[in-house]
Amino acid sequence: MYRFLLSRQWVILTLVALLLIPTMIRLGIWQMHRYEERSARNQLVADALGAKAVPVEKLTSPGHTITSKQRYRTVTAEGRFDTDREVVVRRRVNADEEVGFHVLTPFVLTDGKVLLVNRGWIPADGPSQTAFPKIPAPPSGRVTVSGRLMPDETTEASGIKNLEGLPDRQVMLINSEQEARRLHAQVLGGYAVLTAPEPKGDTPELIGKPGDENAPLNYAYAVQWWLFAAGVPVGWWILLRREVRDRANAAAAEETQTAPAPV
Q1: Domain edges within the chain
Q2: What is the Cβ-side half-sphere exposure of residue 72, based on CA atoms within 13 angstroms?
Q3: Residues 6-45 pLDDT 10s
Q4: DSSP per residue over 182-208, as a string?
Q5: Rg of the chain taking only CA atoms, in angstroms
Q6: What's the chain's average pLDDT?
């Protein structure tokens, strides 16, 4: 009855099924790991955003590397904006996916150190993005600012190439070591995304809070792969029973056709 399982067709079908089951189980495990990683990152972001604001020099110093737990922490600083040495960061988009610049302004603290402040997004003056854009001035004099602490941008982490030969006062990456060389100053590690004071006229556009990664989607994918893995042997068994039934019916019909007619 089951000798057909040794046929070429059924041997291949069975081998494919045996290969698919562990592959799908493994894909489900990988998706579950992605779910756990994303959930952990979401929790880190939520904890950082919900933490109490602290003076920036409690979390960073010149040459310091911002850690994952420090990222998005709200920091405060007192000093003045140095717009004479302000630069713009090329090829940045806003919430509407429009390409423009981020405005990076040195903020000189009361002790002389410099905090890099990303004041937000502005549109480019033209399609070439070669001319230095017109930038609304920040508050003058001594002010207190607050912002979300961010790590230095690197090509390895962002995928953005740090191009050379750019137009004057334009950069590709926000990097405190690079800016320290340009400014000839002690620059705190990382930079701050400005949250207050808000700009007059809503320009530059402040950069919004980071959103949660869609971790539940990875959880759903994991369950889906495991259901697929469970469905493979079920499908194989259904095909087997169908084959047995079809062969039995075919044998019965053949037997009926070859049986001698009654006398």
Answers
A1: 3-43+216-247, 54-202
A2: 19
A3: 888 889 999 999 999 999 999 999 999 999 999 998 999 9
A4: HHTS-BBSSEEEEEESPPGGG-SBPPP
A5: 32
A6: 92
Which pLDDT score, from 0 to 100, does residue 24 have? 97
How many other CB atoms sit within 10 Å of the CB of residue 175?
Answer: 22
134, 122, 137, 128: which is closest to 89 by C-alpha? 122
pTM of the model: 0.78
Nearest to 109 by CA among 81, 84, 150, 86: 81
Give the pair of three-digit tokens for residue 20.
């698919």
Please name which of 71, 73, 94 lies closest in space to residue 157, comparing C-alpha atoms.
71
Pick from 122, 114, 115: nearest CA to 88 = 122
So what's the pLDDT on residue 263?
Answer: 55
pLDDT in tens, 152-195: 999 998 999 998 889 989 999 999 999 999 999 999 999 999 99
Residue 233, amino acid: P
pLDDT in tens, 58-79: 999 999 999 999 999 999 999 9
Q: Is the peptide bond before 197 cis (omega within 30 degrees of 0)?
A: yes
In degrees, rounded to 5, the angle at the alpha carbon of residue 142 between the alpha carbons of residues 179 and 119 is 45
Phi, psi of 25, deg, nearest 5: -60, -45
Q: Are 158 and 173 in contact (CB under 8 A)?
A: yes
The residue written with tokens 């955003």 in the block is 49
Spatial distance between the Cα atoms of 252 and 68, rounded to a whole number of angstroms = 72
Amino acid present at 6: L
